Every structure is written in structure tokens, then in C-alpha cells.
Amino acid sequence: MPHYKLMYFNLRGYGEGPRLLLHYAGVPFEDVRVTFEEWPKLKAKMPFRQLPVLEVDGRQIAQSAAICRYLGRQFSKYLVPKCPIEEAMVDAVHDAHKDFQYEIRDYLLISEGFAQGDKDEKVKMLKDVVLPAANKYFGYLRGLLIKSDGTHLVGKTLTWADIVIADNLHSITIIIPTLFDGQPEIKKYVDGILQIPAIKKYIEERPETPF
């Protein structure tokens, strides 16, 4: 079995998807949580001067989406559809989720203290940016759930994108508790994924960190 070493900050963020996939598969790995003090010395050693980075027997893979796709295919017996078109659809769904993350990124950074912004600015951003982006995105997800079995986004089996997206949406609801208001299908979908035993166990035991 390859030796996996995942490097990211002591946050969930873009590193939590790979952590979840490795825990779900029951694969041992080094979970290296880089401090902000350590980061300047490590930065030049990273392929794109960013984290997360996954080392596989010493070879580096950068970019969170690439890491998740790699891990999903490594564990393809569980997490990648056999149909090439459905496999591409899984990639597309994850890319769409990253678009949504980018749309609401500023609000999350301000909420968690990583960027400056006052209360009035947050209220305006929530109303004018975050909730419209969420309503648009959840409309896409509802359409996918209708086409599948209602419990997965693509096909009728669990994929790596289900795990990554459901946990990330759950993390966002910690910051925005009203995110799923009026979205029963989305809440049911997320709750169902998070009840999978291996995922539930990891979430219950993982370190408490900022988003």
C-alpha cells in the first residue's frame, strides 16, 4: 500500500475532503497540520505554493480537486462510477461546488475572522450574495437528486463528490445555520451522507477547528 502524507493547515477548508476520503476508505495516512508559523518555510517546497498537498510515496499532488479525484479513483471500487460519463459528471458536480464556494468565500472569511468586515457588511453580503448563490446552487443539486435516487448526486451509489460536498455544506451551516431553510431535499441528502458510519465516526472525533 502506498504511504500517504496529507499536508494542510489545522482547518477543515480544502483539506477536509481528502481527509474524509482517506478515513472513509480506512487507509492509514499522515495528517500533517501545518501551523501558520511553519508555513513560510514550507511554502517554496509546494508545487503551487499552496496547500493542501498529498504526498504518495514521496511524490506530490497539489490542488484539492485533483487530490480528491485521485483518491476517489484509487478507491474506485467504492467511490467512482463504472460508467465513464457518470465519472465525468461526478467531476463536474465537484467543480460546480467549488464555484459555489468561491461565490461565498468572502462571507466565510469575514465570519471566521480571516478577513475584515463589520456586522452591517456581513448582513448585506448574506442577503445580496450568499443566499442568492445558495438558492441557485441548491436548485442544481435538487435537479441532480431527482435524476438519481434522491440520496446521491450522480447515479445510485456513493461517490467521492458526495462525501466532499455533503461535509462542506455541513460545515457552512455551522456558520450560516439558516442555510437549509426551505431546502428539505438538500438537508435530507446531507444528513444521509453524514450518517454513513465511517464518516459519522470521523466527524465526531475530528479536532475542533475553524472552518
UniProtKB/TrEMBL annotation:
GO terms for molecular function: glutathione transferase activity. The keyword Zinc-finger does not apply. It catalyses: RX + glutathione = an S-substituted glutathione + a halide anion + H(+). GO terms for biological process: glutathione metabolic process. InterPro entries: Glutathione-S-Trfase_C-like, Glutathione-S-Trfase_C_sf, Glutathione_S-Trfase, Glutathione_S-Trfase_N, GST_C, GST_superfamily, Thioredoxin-like_sf. GO terms for cellular component: cytoplasm. Pfam families: GST_C_3, GST_N. Its EC number is 2.5.1.18. The keyword Transferase applies. Coiled coil: none annotated. Residues 2-79 form the GST N-terminal domain. Keywords: Transferase. Residues 83-211 form the GST C-terminal domain. Belongs to the GST superfamily. Sigma family. PANTHER family: GLUTATHIONE S-TRANSFERASE, HEMATOPOIETIC PROSTAGLANDIN D SYNTHASE. This is glutathione transferase. It comes from Syphacia muris. The lineage of its organism: Eukaryota, Metazoa, Ecdysozoa, Nematoda, Chromadorea.
